Amino acid sequence: MIQERIEEKLQQAFAPLHLEVINESYMHNVPEGSESHFKVIVVSEQFEGMRLIGRHRAVNGALADELANHIHALAIHTYTEAEWQGQQDGAPASPACRGGSKLG
């Protein structure tokens, strides 16, 4: 299962204080049961002093194989512990699907 692989790789790479891997494929024009669109929320001490682009590159690097071969879209939300504690509503909601053809 791709979702489990994502969780394992992010756990190994970042030792997160909080991790959510959400399969958002159902929100898109894909076959039922697809694992193609994900949102990840990663809270890690490793992000201290790191710019947003560096955080995203680190997540992309940890998931390079999945991004190259399995994942069509990945929404990345990265936080330090202090930033996460300041989030009253959690990570932002993902935008609505803008269409596209079914993935086969």
From TrEMBL:
<protein>
    <recommendedName>
        <fullName>DNA-binding transcriptional regulator BolA</fullName>
    </recommendedName>
</protein>
<dbReference type="GO" id="GO:0006351">
    <property type="term" value="P:DNA-templated transcription"/>
</dbReference>
<dbReference type="GO" id="GO:0005829">
    <property type="term" value="C:cytosol"/>
</dbReference>
<dbReference type="InterPro" id="IPR050961">
    <property type="entry name" value="BolA/IbaG_stress_morph_reg"/>
</dbReference>
<keyword id="KW-0346">Stress response</keyword>
<comment type="function">
    <text>Transcriptional regulator that plays an important role in general stress response.</text>
</comment>
<dbReference type="Pfam" id="PF01722">
    <property type="entry name" value="BolA"/>
</dbReference>
<dbReference type="InterPro" id="IPR002634">
    <property type="entry name" value="BolA"/>
</dbReference>
<dbReference type="GO" id="GO:1990229">
    <property type="term" value="C:iron-sulfur cluster assembly complex"/>
</dbReference>
<feature type="region of interest" description="Disordered">
    <location>
        <begin position="84"/>
        <end position="104"/>
    </location>
</feature>
<dbReference type="InterPro" id="IPR036065">
    <property type="entry name" value="BolA-like_sf"/>
</dbReference>
<comment type="similarity">
    <text>Belongs to the BolA/IbaG family.</text>
</comment>
